[in-house]
Amino acid sequence: MICREHYLRRADRVGEQLRYVAEYRGPWVARLAWIATAFHRKDREAWIGWTVGQKRRRLTLGVNHSRFLLRTEGRVPNLASRVMKL
Prior knowledge:
Layout: H1 2-5, E1 17-23, E2 28-36, H2 42-48, H3 52-58, E3 63-70, H4 79-85
Antiparallel strand pairs: 1-2, 2-3
């Protein structure tokens, strides 16, 4: 569904992934995907201020939100906010 309907088209991900489907009265109205955070991001580490040891312990707590697809048919008011809240 993401390959067919998301504007970026691609849905292939590397590493650990977490995918969710949101339903409203039966049909799927949204799809969300998260992937494991990158091992090394210079700007992120400078902003957070992690030491090497902190990075090693805490890196698994971070995720990257990689895809968010809202279905176009059957509009639901405030759908994006509702899905993200859940």
